[in-house]
Design brief:
Shape: elongated
Strand order of the largest sheet: 2-1-3-4-5-11
Distance between the termini: 55 Å
Number of strands: 12
Radius of gyration: 25 Å
Helix content: 40-55%
Structural class: alpha/beta
Strand content: 5-15%
Largest sheet: 6 strands, parallel
Number of helices: 14
Length: about 350
């Protein structure tokens, strides 16, 4: 077996310095394009692989970041992971992913395990049960261990850390305004309990849009579902309300909105003529629902990229007293057939 080629070997063969080889392999623009191509081609020809163990020992780093998310099957979180992976890999880091399954205890165990020398920093989206309990001690403790933390999507202001969040308020506002523009008079929202910050903020955006148009807030049109109970049954009972005829629904995620569409079709309610529906998260459920679902796009990949950049900058920075940052990622309204009641707004197929 041939011995592994090293950066020094490449430098000697090409008559350049080892630092030039190192930067060329990372596609550093300070190195000329010709030299970069020459170094990269030579490295590829001889199957060069970086010595990650040596790099870890030199830097006293694991070169791994940990990610704790509530679930992996949700389209939003899968897009976030793809953004995190891209930035981490570009900066020679690996990613270790753990699932909390919305459990406080599982989240706490994951954080403690990862913080025990396994990773250089953590990215966390807080579990629903943790938010409900309001106990964030396991996250606060990371500061005393000098382990950088970035919270994303579901965050807690009590935790000292960098944060990356969706403009949930703006998303709720945009969706509600759109439904009003489609002629809806009695717009309902299917949301989460208020302790889940993303649902609470989307509901506030919904309320703001109604207030701006001098539409009274009707609590009969606000459903805060309990995920521990049957979702379809709760939403069906809500839509059965005989006191007010709902002609528009905003679901704070695509599952709630898809269930509302399914129930409406079972009841013989025409979408969008009799009921217009908008959801959140532009995933496969939205695209393949019948009719295709209008939605608020959250740009999960961008959130993952921004969160990873913040964390890696925090890991590598020299100024340990730098203040924490909060980045807000704007949303976009994507109009499809589930809410297109009049002409004037193009349908995206």
């Amino acid at each position: 077996m041939r011995p592994k080629i090293t950066i020094k070997d490449i430098a000697k063969e090409l008559d350049v310095s080892p630092s030039t080889v190192s930067r060329a392999l990372k596609d550093n623009p300070e190195i000329s394009e010709e030299t970069r191509r020459k170094v990269q081609a030579f490295a590829a020809l001889h199957n060069y692989r970086p010595n990650m163990l040596g790099q870890k020992l030199r830097n006293n780093k694991t070169m791994v970041i940990g990610v704790v998310i509530p679930e992996i099957v949700h389209h939003f979180f899968s897009m976030v992971i793809s953004g995190i992976e891209k930035i981490a890999n570009d900066r020679d880091y690996n990613v270790m992913i753990c699932l909390s399954n919305e459990s406080y205890e599982k989240e706490k165990l994951n954080v403690q395990m990862l913080a025990n020398g396994s990773v250089d920093g953590l990215l966390v989206s807080i579990a629903k049960e943790t938010l409900e309990r309001g106990n964030f001690d396991h996250l606060k403790e990371l500061q005393s261990y000098n382990i950088p933390l970035v919270l994303f999507d579901r965050v807690a202001d009590e935790v000292p850390s960098d944060k990356v969040v969706v403009d949930d308020f703006g998303g709720g506002y945009k969706a509600t305004k759109h439904l009003m523009e489609m002629g809806c008079k009695n717009i309902a929202i299917i949301s989460t309990p208020d302790y889940i910050n993303v649902g609470a903020l989307r509901t506030k955006g919904y309320i703001k849009a109604l207030e701006e148009n001098k539409i009274p807030i009707d609590n009969r049109l606000i459903l805060k579902v309990d995920d521990k109970l049957d979702l379809s049954q709760q939403i069906a009972q809500f839509m059965d309300n005989k006191e007010v005829r709902i002609d528009g629904i905003l679901g704070v995620n695509e599952i709630y909105a898809a269930i509302a569409i399914k129930i409406a079709k079972e009841k013989g309610i025409y979408i969008p003529d009799e009921l217009a529906v908008v959801g959140f998260t532009d995933g496969l459920i939205s695209l393949f629902s019948t009719p295709e679902m209008s939605t608020i796009k959250q740009h999960g990949k961008t959130i993952g990229e921004q969160a990873a950049e913040l964390l890696l900058d925090r890991i590598q920075q020299q100024d340990k007293n730098k203040g924490y940052e909060r980045k807000v990622i704007s949303t976009d309204l994507i109009v499809r057939k589930s809410s297109q009641k009049t002409t004037g707004i193009p349908i995206i197929n």
